[in-house]
Design a protein that fits this description.
The complex is a heterodimer. Chain A is α/β, with parallel strands linked by helices. Chain A has two domains: about 400 residues, no CATH class; about 55 residues, no CATH class. Chain A is built from eleven helices and 25 strands. In chain A, helix 2 runs antiparallel to helix 8 and helix 9 crosses helix 10. Chain A is globular. Chain B is mostly beta strands. In chain B, strands 3-5-7-9-11-13-15-17 form an eight-stranded parallel beta sheet, with no helix packed on it. In chain B, strands 4-6-8-10-12-14-16-18 form an eight-stranded parallel beta sheet, with helices on one face. Chain B starts with a strand and ends in an 8-residue tail after the last helix. Classes of the chains: A alpha/beta, B mainly beta.
């Protein structure tokens, strides 16, 4: 009997360790004005932020749940702990970080990566940043990389944050944006001055350790004219039976002729609901590049949006999604062309196995004023067994005749003809099939930072026995 | 009058795109039931109607409907195709009033269903087609052509559901949008678990000519079966600049080049009609009747 090739589930052993939390540190579950006020007091918010939180809570209570996408009926937000008190103040010296937290990030390889290949690192544990550091020469160039709370209290940046915070993703955007506005905590603030090009990346790592908790970090990045930044974001959590929630928000402002590369490897545990919102506003001649790997979580809704707001602005999205047992990952991207001669390119791959559900969802909108714009979308899905599911739901809304928009999508399994061809060239069937699966993911993995590409290869461990299909 | 949701997308998406459904005010459907029994039928439709087309035991039926007039219309067409039988349905929409059309078709083993729809300057048309490929090796092809102008509004929702093994579907849409025309084309290939060996393809090619035309394209593939091949492609935009340059260098003015390109889009759909009389009548409607003279 023909034995099926199996592609292994993601090896999560590296992520599934955890430390017990002291529940006295929990602010209490649920979402009330009292909880929000307590959280605001705990964080020593300026008054405008306290009011913003309460206003967002009001919007949250009035906003309907989304009526499309995977079911989130099992997520009871009232049971989610929205804030966990800080275990220690934010440190810039790794030796000052509490031992259990330090061990967590050391297991994840963060300090090693900082030494070897990063210009700066931020590490968030549950609700607060515990470590933030940036290389001296980078700081001297005027680059600011710190936690959002510190920046908000620093008179040099306070006004900048007030004028940018949740302006791209307003709380009215959707229910979980409103939730974020009410209970956000932690996250990073990055400011890159005019003309500064950071050759090595900055990285933030978000770790949710507590059981039944939510993480609501806010990342705000502002790139001035002619600057460049590569920002890497990593996320993970250990596995619990209780549902966890990640409703972070990323707002990116890319200035004139500036370029930002934003790479994410998301590997939340399979009890997590990942309802994250990411958005970039790109000015004239600017460029945003998203590189996204979605491997974890029970349910994901993730569609980074690029608003091409200045003439000649560009956006690229490269993504891979791997949905295994018990996962329903709804991912993709949104491109809004709102200026002449803008261009966007989307290239995604998704793999479904062991009953996992993977959905590619996209929107390309070319507005009336976006004359001379171009957009191209390419998505491919691979089904590795007969119990999984893979859907493709793209949409295009084109409102000018002076645009060129192309779209292509493919879905299927490993082609017998390709395997046969490779075998006729002397490659064994097992190797041929392994080669095809690796090749399928290759053009995405090569866009990832090296250490993340290696991690992805480890995540998709291949066990080749016989044949797929 | 009741407000009714029509053309609901089989898998809804971002609400702000406004493509998950469309709403219209509808009177109660007061249709005349008509069973098309002849091998070949050509019928003018200007009142609410409910058609039944039934082909069994290797029958091959052809029906052409010319749907027009000045009054609002609701048309339902039910197509049942038995084993090894075939139905070709041509619907030409040229109504100047609100038209709501619904085609429901089922194809058994080795059956073939060919649907050709042309939307020629229709003012307000909502058109749905749900085709279920029930039996092994059942086939469905759809050729959709549209020529829209002024403030024409067209919403098409077409679904090919593959249930049987080795079923095949092919959906092709080509169209031209002038003036302030608005069009939404939703095409879904739905591979249900068990339809091993099924193949589904879908493509749309839209030529935008009008300065204020609004085009929405939503091509879905839903897949619950491993052993299938599904693909879709879409191309939306203007006439290729190199093409214009080449033709202009041969002495043709730009306006004429665009006109010819637009004509060729719709002609491809017309030419896919095997029935000569029907094709000739459509060419007359398009003003192409004397092109050979």
């Amino acid at each position: 009997m023909k034995e099926k090739t199996t592609v292994a589930d993601i090896d999560r052993s590296r992520y599934d360790f955890r430390f017990e939390e002291d529940e006295n540190d929990f602010l209490g579950s649920g979402l009330t004005a009292q909880i929000v006020n307590e959280l605001s007091a705990e964080k020593n918010d300026p008054e405008w932020m306290r009011e913003f939180r309460l206003h967002s809570l009001d919007i949250y209570n009035k906003t309907k749940m989304v009526e499309w996408g995977p079911s989130i009926d099992e997520l009871d937000v009232d049971k989610i702990v929205t804030y966990i008190r800080q275990k220690s103040r934010m440190n810039t010296d790794w030796n000052d970080v509490p031992e259990d937290i330090k061990q967590t990030f050391e297991n994840l390889g963060i300090p090693q990566a900082e030494q070897e290949s990063l210009a700066g690192v931020g590490a968030q544990y549950d609700s607060e940043l515990v470590y933030h550091n940036v290389r001296k020469e980078v700081a001297q160039s005027g680059v600011v990389y710190t936690d959002l709370e510190s920046a908000m209290h620093d008179e040099r940046y306070a006004e900048m944050i007030k004028s940018h915070f949740m302006k791209l993703v307003p709380p009215t955007d959707h229910k979980f944006a409103a939730l974020h506005g009410a209970v956000w905590s932690g996250g990073s603030f990055v400011y890159v001055p005019k003309g500064v090009k950071l050759e090595i990346p900055l990285q933030s790592y978000f770790r949710l350790n507590a059981k039944g908790a939510g993480q609501f970090e806010h990342t705000l990045i502002i790139l001035e004219e002619d600057s460049y930044l590569h920002f890497i974001e990593g996320c993970s959590a250990p596995k619990y039976y209780e549902a966890g929630l990640h409703a972070g928000c990323v707002e990116l402002y890319v200035g004139k002729n500036a370029a930002l590369r934003y790479s994410t490897i998301e590997n939340w545990s399979k009890n997590m609901y990942n309802l994250n919102t990411k958005r970039a506003l790109v000015a004239e001649g600017g460029k945003i590049e998203w590189v996204s790997g979605s491997f974890g979580s029970h349910v994901s809704y993730l569609y980074p949006m690029s608003i091409l707001n200045g003439e000649g602005a560009r956006a690229e999205f490269t993504g891979i999604t791997f949905a295994g047992e018990g996962q329903n990952l709804d991912t993709g991207a949104k491109m809004i062309h709102n200026a002449p001669n803008t261009s966007s390119y989307m290239n995604t791959k998704s793999i479904s196995k062991s009953g996992g559900i993977s959905t590619f969802r996209s929107a390309v909108v070319v507005k009336e004023n976006a004359v001379g714009s171009k957009s191209s979308v390419s998505c491919e899905s691979l089904m590795l067994d007969g119990i999984s599911r893979s859907d493709t739901v793209p949409a295009m809304d084109i409102r000018t005749k002076y645009a060129d928009v192309g779209h292509e999508a493919k879905i299927g399994r490993i082609s017998d003809e390709t395997v046969f061809y490779l075998m006729s060239r002397g490659i064994s069937e097992q190797d041929a099939r392994a080669m095809i699966v690796r090749g399928f993911a290759d053009n995405v993995s090569k866009e990832l930072p090296l250490e993340y590409a290696m991690e992805m290869n480890n995540l998709i461990g291949l066990e080749m026995h016989g044949s797929i299909g | 009058m009741n407000t009714v949701k029509l053309n609901t997308l089989p898998a809804p998406t971002f609400s702000w795109l406004g493509v998950n459904d469309t709403q219209r005010e509808l009177d109660e459907h007061n249709a005349q039931s008509i069973t098309l029994t002849e091998k070949r039928t050509s019928i003018d439709v200007s009142a609410d109607s409910a058609f039944d087309i039934n082909a069994q035991d290797g029958e091959n039926k052809f029906a052409a409907m010319f749907i027009g007039g000045e009054n609002s219309l609701q048309i339902k067409t039910n197509v049942d195709i038995g084993s090894s039988s075939q139905v070709t349905l041509v619907q030409v929409f040229e109504s100047k009033a609100q038209t709501v059309s619904e085609v429901t078709a089922r194809a058994a083993g080795n059956a073939k269903f060919e649907l050709i729809q042309l939307y020629l300057h229709t003012t307000d048309t909502v058109s749905q087609a749900d085709v279920t490929l029930d039996g092994r090796k059942a086939e469905f092809t759809a050729n959709i052509g549209y020529l829209l102008d002024d403030s024409d509004d067209l919403d098409i929702n077409l679904t090919a559901k593959h249930l049987g093994r080795k079923t095949v579907s092919g959906i092709t849409a080509k169209g031209v949008m002038n003036g302030n025309a608005r069009k939404t084309f939703k095409g879904t290939i739905d591979f249900a678990r068990g339809c091993a060996g099924a193949v589904g393809t879908e493509s749309e090619d839209v030529l935008l000519i009008g300065e204020k035309a609004v085009n929405k394209t939503v091509p879905l593939i839903l897949c619950a079966e491993e052993d299938v091949e599904g693909s879709h492609g879409a191309s939306i935009g203007r006439v290729d600049e190199q093409h214009i340059f080449y033709m202009m260098s041969r002495g043709l003015p730009e306006e004429k080049i665009i006109q010819l390109t637009a004509q060729s889009k719709i002609s491809q759909t017309v030419n896919s009609i095997g029935d000569e009389q029907t094709a000739e009548r459509i060419k007359l409607i398009l003003g192409q009747g004397d092109e050979d003279e």
